[in-house]
Amino acid sequence: MTDTPLRDTLARIARGDITATEAFDACAAAIEAREPEIRAFAHLDLDHARDALPGRAGLPLAGLPVALKDIFDSADMPTTYGSPIYAGWRPKTDAAVAARLRALGASLVGKTVTTEFAMAHPGPTRNPRDPARTPGGSSSGSAAAVAAGMTPAGIGTQTAGSVIRPASFCGIVGFKPSFGLLPTAGMKPLAPSFDTVGLFGRAVDDCALLCDLLLGGDGAPLQPVANRLRVGLVRGANWGEASPEAQAAVLGAAETLAKAGHAVEEITPPASFDELDAAHWTIMAREAALATAFEQSTAPERISASFSRLIAEGLAVSAAVHAAALAQMNGARAEMDALGGTFDLLLTFSAPGPAPIGLDFTGSPVFNKLWSALGTPCVTIPVRTEAPAPIGVQLVGRRYDDASFLARALAVEQTLAA
User: Fold this and answer.
1) Residues 1, 23: contact at Cβ < 8 Å?
2) What residues have CB less than 8 Å from 243, skipping those under 6 apart?
3) Positions of the region Disordered (predicted)?
4) Of 6, 46, 59, 390, which one has the greatest count of Cβ atoms within 10 A?
């Protein structure tokens, strides 16, 4: 049951094949069995969530557990933002996403591990597919919880590559919506120009269902597009940073889509896109330095060395340089909007390759920063490869066209799985 997609589990509950309590207990059993090794949760309280189950009867998510990244405030659980500064901290209110999940009937069984302030310094979480490997970051725990069968869905955030990369490493689906689509109120900010609420699931439809419900929809089944897709294959200037397995995964996906009748054409992105990595770092560093002013003034000794270096770099960025980088980013977003009329979606890398061995490095966001800067919706879909650990391919869509993009992504997922 713990490998069943979210919609299928909800349908079984609605038909009476299983009870909501049985579905919850299956997830709880998976948590109890795997959490000691995987360590996906920064805080866990199954008993509290189980006691609240009767009040979730009849609600859209029927009491199913959803993994919530510990970067979102929660009134009934600690919220630490991955930092020792906030050990035991109890916010007075829920973040908007947390409140919406509760209203939909989700069981928030705990808070999942995040890197420090959703940046680079890793937590203890291991990759469920191979515990010797990183699960990625910064949404380490949410991706791991879904991949381990602990929860059918999870909530993360992406500022650079923190949804797409861990989903790829853990062999699940990750969805980063268009910038600003889901509310960030009550979420600890890192770089407000990029911070985006993202979703994890076992299938594209899981993410589509959860996103639709969070936005106030009825969660109607997602229908794959039936028409021939125009797919732009993006190798990009960083092609050489991808491993042979990742290159084979992307080229293999392109070949499969072409054989299925879709129009696949390699495209060269505008030259301005090559400069966005530097602009992304400039903006992120300055905004992260400004966003953590309180922590710098009250507990600088409890900030990691890696985050302290980011702060130092950010404080060295002037307001004028930051403004110029924002203007550069906005110009590139306009170019991306114009480019969007020539394709239905783009196909590219989710990550440089399989998850690195070891827990000290959560992997490079080299293939994610561009799309985070452009604010586009992105999905990673796991593909079959000869690699020693999971690899996904990334699909990129047009800004604010998320529902149509997900329908196209579902068609791609079905084609690649055939």
Assistant:
1) yes
2) 352, 353, 354, 387
3) 119-144
4) 390
3-state secondary structure of 346: strand
- What lies within 8 Å, CB to CB, of 211 at 6+ separation is 175, 177, 181, 182, 199, 402, 406
Is 0.85 surpassed by the pTM of this model?
A: yes
The count of other CB atoms within 10 Å of the CB of residue 354 is 24
Supply the residues annotated as catalytic: 69, 138, 162
The pLDDT value recorded for residue 1 is 56
How far is the C-alpha of 301 from the C-alpha of 330, rounded, in Å? 36
pLDDT at 387: 87
Name the packing angle between helices 6-15 and 20-38 (round to 10°): 150
Residue 234 CB burial class (10 angstroms; 0-12, 13-18, ≥19): buried
Cis peptide before 404 (omega within 30 of 0): no
* Phi and psi angles of residue 314, each rounded to the nearest 5 degrees, phi first: -65, -40
CA atoms within 13 A on the CB side of 383: 34
Q: Give the residue among 153, 120, 162, 141 at the shortest CA–CA distance from 44.
A: 141
Angle, helix 6-15 to helix 204-214, in steps of 10 degrees? 70
Is there a contact between 81 and 114 (Cβ–Cβ < 8 Å)? yes
CA 168 – CA 135 distance, rounded (Å): 9
Q: Is residue 151 helix, strand or coil?
A: coil
Q: Amino acid identity, residue 350? A: S
Give average pLDDT by consecutive 10-residue segment, the chain, 418 residues. Answer: 88 97 97 98 97 95 98 97 97 98 98 97 97 98 98 98 98 98 98 98 98 97 92 94 97 98 95 94 98 98 97 98 98 94 96 98 97 98 93 98 97 95
Structure-block tokens of residue 20? 């909501």
Token digits of residue 258: 């072409």
Exposed, middle or buried: residue 220 (CB in 10 Å: 0-12, 13-18, 19+)? exposed
Largest Cα span, the chain: 61
Strands of 41-44's sheet, edge to edge?
Answer: 41-44, 110-112, 66-69, 153-158, 196-201, 173-176, 378-383, 391-396, 345-349, 230-233, 263-266
